[in-house]
Amino acid sequence: MALIDEENPQNAETTPKMKFGERLVEAGLITKKQLKDALKLQAQTGSQIGDILLFNENLRPLEYYQQLALQYNLRFVNFTTDEIDINILNMVEREDYFTSLTIPFQKRAGHIVVATANPSPINFDRIRQKWGPKTEIVITSKFDILWAVSKIFGKDYINDSVNGLLTQYREYSAKQTFTRIQGTLISVSLVMMVVYCYFFPFQGLFYINFAVNLYIFIALVFRLFLAVTGLFIKQNNIVPTRMATDDELPIYSIMVAIYKENETTLSNLVKNLDKLDYPKEKLDIKIVLEEDDLETIEIFKKLRIASYYEIIVVPPGGPKTKPKACNYALKFVRGEYVTVFDAEDDPDPNQLRYVYSVYKEADERGETDIACYQCRLNFYNSKENFFTKMFTLEYSYWYELIMPALDLYNMPIPLGGTSNHFKTKFLHEMLAWDPYNMTEDADLGLRISQLGYRTKMLPPHTLEEAPVEFINWIKQRTRWNKGHMQTLLVHNRHPFKLIKKIGLKNYLSFNFLIMGGIAMSLSYITYSIIMLLSYLFDTKLEHAVFTEFMRLFGEVNLIMGTVVVVIMIFIASLKAKLYDLSHYSFASPFYWLFIGMACYRALFQLIFQPFKWEKTQHGVSKKFAEEQKEPTK
To answer: In the prediction, which pLDDT does 544 show?
Structure first.
């Protein structure tokens, strides 16, 4: 298909003799009706007709881009067969190559050959202004450019993804679990407590017991304050005055990091993302896979996904974690806004449009410091068994009461692992996620606050799959608890510096919320066992740890705290309209014993396996089994 005058390549492209849509009809790739429908969409969205046809009519990309080359009388090149000259590439401009869909291809006598997947007279002028008037322009596909950039710069990208935060903001990285000062303080404190308890066992245990109970009491009061506040916050407290129209919408990127998922989960993911009420030609969906996950790669080949999906294959290197994969994929994001979903997610169809509309109106009001909007989360398999029911109630308590209250008081919000929507420029500025943190979302939420930005809560929901099996549940909860411990250690490395940045109120809220949760989980199971033993057996330990005063104090914490939190969970279930699950709130004390087990497991891993990522297995719900049994229609 070489249509270029090799002796005089510059300005070789010609003005198209027919409209591109008509060319596709003439080539038999689309029908006249499809073209007519696409023209209507173009009038609504303002998008290029070619993008609309490529992303909405499921054209084969190879045939589409070959016709695009013919449209401008240019040569089409395929990077898998036509070798790109890496010596003419500029490391500094590597990310521009993909965002502009234009990359130097080869060097010939006296001129550069530049390949583009975005041909237009304006772009041709830009190319020649940058690479010279004699530049030869050829056409390739955006998938070829993605493949070439990831193949050539993959090692550099993976190094940035693993070490970017560590190199530029070392104090925010969880690669070092304990700093020297933290390790020394913790070790000295433990030794002093052991020595004191050895020589003065009754007094030592009494003081430890009193300190722990006092801290938990304060943390409980703080949570009660947030929960009561959350009761009076309307679910739809942030509503755009009007939804943005198709022509106002920008390119929106979605990242889904996936590892070893089954075909049922992945086909449901594609179905759920395809339901999004957003112009397909303005979607930039990145399916992020690990290089060694050959089974998942093969599944996506079979699924024949639309052209607005792109497969990003993450090279090996560093910890194999979701945040590292997202950091890598972020290098290829083209959207002005970006969100993260999980493989099992089912987001509200209007979620992207809603979030952008709110962002747009916030910018118009001058609220340009909002770096993230967090949507609400819950589960679609809530009624499956005890653990799914309790997990659903727990999420309702968190997303209906606690997080809206944090938002109201402008306190740091520990993000959920999905459906957090960012301005891409802010995400780059913050160096995205910490690949060594097991709860990279909560960590990023606190870093947003440290850097002077805000997170806000929004009403749209995303439904997830709650872990069905106990082993799956405890692995996930262990990872979360370990990540919260990492986050506490990271952000408390310089407490006075942190207070100066975010203020005493926000510092205390972050510590009482996260550290309080860990302390309550560890102490609940511990005190339950000790108090049970103290009632069953008359021992000296009982009198040391549980004097009359301490027994009363401990019972107030354990019993009254339990009653108050159970009532709050019950009310949260009503607010979330989970009427048929609300009575399970009273089983929470039994459920918390399992959370305590996971917390002790997390503490062990924090010391001996800090970067072990125990993956949550998806696609095991009865919901999926029932769907597989249904006959194909």
So the answer is: 54
